[in-house]
Amino acid sequence: MGEAHYDLGNDFYASMLDSRMTYTCGYWKNAQTLEEAQTAKLDLICQKIGLKPGMRVLDIGCGWGSFMSYAAEHYDVECVGVTISKEQTAWAKKQYPHLPLEFRLQDYREINEEFDRIVSIGMFEHVGHKNHREFMEVANRCLKENGLFLLHTIGKNKRNSTTDPWIDKYIFPNGDLPSIGQIGDAIDDLFVMEDLHNFGPDYDKTLMAWHENFEKAWPQFKAQLGERFYRMWRYYLLSCAGAFRARDIQLWQWVLSKNGTQDTYPRVS
Predict the structure, then answer these.
(1) CB-based burial of residue 51 (10 Å sphere; 0-12 exposed, 13-18 middle, 19+ buried)?
(2) Is 11 helix (H, G, I), strand (E, B) or coil?
(3) Quick check: is 240 catalytic?
(4) Which of 25, 79, 142, 240 is flagged as catalytic?
């Protein structure tokens, strides 16, 4: 289902997102602009997983490579990213030929090699609760014994709730937000939870920034995408912002280790 949403066109997303094409929640603690919030989020992740020069990092659901490019440029690491979007893969390969990055158009379940660190930023929402355990087993298999895994995901407050039917039909077919309990079930006996950070209200600000950019850029896409798409996309962005503002849905970052860290995990926020 990812192809339909993410292959709308790189030009469209470039007009709505920040310069690195980061299509996940920004971190607005000390930020005033979307660009600052996304940079802060990327750096927060790098700090949380303790990146060091020379490390090899896996990004499950790498999008347009925003995290990978930032980590390689600022922390001197090598990254492998997987996505099922042809548009994202083509754009990222063209954008970052000068960095030690490998973009793979493949299913994450096919990966069978070890990494010092793993991240998955805004992809777990598409896995589905029936596949949560398999996802975590893949991450466990691919993470070195002393490694760290950061999971960045939207989450819901109630386990047995269903996806909004309109969002499921028109925006994210088969999307499935996890609850804290479902993630807990999925990591049972696979990972130790070192840290859990909720900054759900920041997604309200992120979505409103995307909406502002979308409105400004719409005249150049009006003929191509049409009025029906405009109404749908506007409703998508604003209704999701409202859901985060009402605290009906959350944004979590989980830091996981395989056997627990030797010292108390240093909380970064």
Answers:
(1) buried
(2) helix
(3) yes
(4) 240
**Per residue in 71-125, pLDDT tens?**
999 999 999 999 998 889 999 999 999 999 999 999 999 999 999 999 999 999 9
| d(C-alpha 12, C-alpha 233), whole Å | 12
The span from the CA of 104 to the CA of 225, in Å, is: 29
152 close to 203: Cβ distance less than 8 angstroms: no
Q: What is the pTM of this model?
A: 0.94
CA 125 to chain centre: 9
Amino acid at site 197:
H
**Amino acid residing at 263:** D
- Give the number of other Cβ atoms within 10 Å of residue 131's Cβ: 15
Q: Using CA atoms, how far apart are residues 244 and 246, in angstroms rounded to an integer? A: 5
Query: How far, rounded to the nearest angstrom, does the alpha carbon of residue 189 sit from its chain's CA centroid?
Result: 24
